[in-house]
Specification:
The structure is a single chain. By secondary structure, the protein is mainly beta. The protein is built from one helix and 21 strands. The protein has a seven-stranded antiparallel sheet, with no helix packed on it. It has a seven-stranded mixed sheet with strand order 17-16-13-14-19-15-18, with no helix packed on it. A six-stranded mixed barrel has the order 2-3-9-4-8-6. A hairpin with a 5-residue loop joins strand 2 and strand 3. The N terminus is likely disordered. Keywords: Signal. InterPro entries: Peptidase_aspartic_dom_sf. This is Lipoprotein.
């Protein structure tokens, strides 16, 4: 199979009309000026992402550590040893990462989550903070399940689960990026941008600029917990080689560097061979690569998995090799902006 040229392998950006892409009403963000920017740890190279994106965080005034920004999960995960003053009798909790099979056990504690390196819209140091439930982990184990189970070490990670559409038991009340103090009092638009310059908290007229391709999300309805509704996983799909286009759901998961594709009629396990051409659809936006071509958006590997929930593609983090990502939790929009 012909290999795509590296310079062209992953830069195609097409806005069509097939799935009804829409945009927020004019002026949606113009009245919002309050926001924060949190710098990335380690100045990541978006053209060749080899590790997850991290920001410095502390929980309840404890140890400041780099936390992975993970759009594939919801909830803050931290070693219990780094959380001061865990109350006696805190309710037991558990969380399992499906791709690695890592199961974490501990207690849920509602505590301040702080971003000590945040700066405000004027560029002044202004640590941002949200008070949300946190899983303080006391033990972990590898279950042996998942496409990345071979890499499971049983170590307790530092995770900022900031995704949406991850199921009814993970409402937005667990997401610190949507529960900052200013968001709670209504002066900040609930949402974030994952971009080259850092993690932007709050959507404003200054940071929602440029040509965004937006997808209107479907409401998940009234939440089981909290006051804000969630939004369903975006529509999208994929095409392998010259085969048919598989349409379903797409997750841009910043917690992974590889990709997972699932559809009836495809293998339920195994690796997609190097050189295979893939086209990924996120709403009306499309990009292409060949497995192993080294392009900025090419994942480090592509896995088949059982289609337990219909057609699905988890793009992994490297989908952002050419894009910034926006999530508007108030309006229900996912946006991508070519960089």
């Amino acid at each position: 199979m012909k290999k795509l040229l590296p310079a062209l392998a992953a830069i195609a950006l097409v806005a069509g009309c097939g799935s009804g892409t829409t945009t927020p009403a004019a002026g949606t963000y113009s009245s919002f000026t309050q926001g924060y920017t949190v710098p990335w740890v380690g100045s990541p190279d978006f053209a060749n992402l080899r590790r997850t994106l991290k920001v410095d965080v502390s929980v309840n005034g404890g140890t400041v550590s780099p936390f992975t920004v993970d759009t594939g999960s919801v909830g803050v995960v931290v070693p219990a040893a780094e959380v001061p003053n865990i109350p006696a009798g805190a309710p037991a909790g558990e969380l399992t990462y499906s791709s690695s099979g890592l199961q974490l056990s501990g207690v849920w504690v509602t505590m301040p989550v702080r971003f000590p390196r945040a700066v405000d819209a004027a560029g002044a140091s202004a640590p941002a903070e949200a008070t949300v439930p946190v899983l303080a982990v006391t033990s972990s184990k590898c279950l042996g399940d998942g496409v990345n189970s071979h890499g499971c070490t049983g170590g307790i990670p530092h995770m900022l689960g900031v995704g949406f559409g991850r199921g009814p038991n993970r409402s937005p009340m667990y997401n610190p990026l949507l529960n900052l103090t200013a968001m709670a009092n209504g002066t900040m638009r609930r949402g974030y941008i994952i971009g080259r310059g850092g993690l932007s908290l709050g959507l404003t007229r200054a940071n929602v600029t440029g040509a965004w391709i937006m997808q209107q999300l479907t409401s998940a309805g009234a939440p089981a917990e909290g006051t804000h509704n969630d939004w369903l996983t975006p529509t999208g799909g994929f095409q392998l080689g010259s085969g048919p286009t598989h349409s379903g759901k797409v997750l841009i998961d910043t917690g992974l560097l590889d990709m997972i594709v699932e559809a009836d009629g495809l293998p339920s396990s195994g690796i997609v061979p190097a050189g295979t051409a893939l086209t990924i659809n996120v709403g009306d936006l499309h990009y292409s690569f060949a497995v192993g071509d080294g392009g900025a958006q090419t994942p480090i590997g592509v896995h088949h998995a059982r289609a337990a929930n219909g057609t699905f593609v988890n793009t992994g983090l490297r989908a952002l090799g050419r894009y910034d990502l926006l999530y508007d939790a108030d309006g229900g929009f996912l946006g991508l902006r070519a960089e």
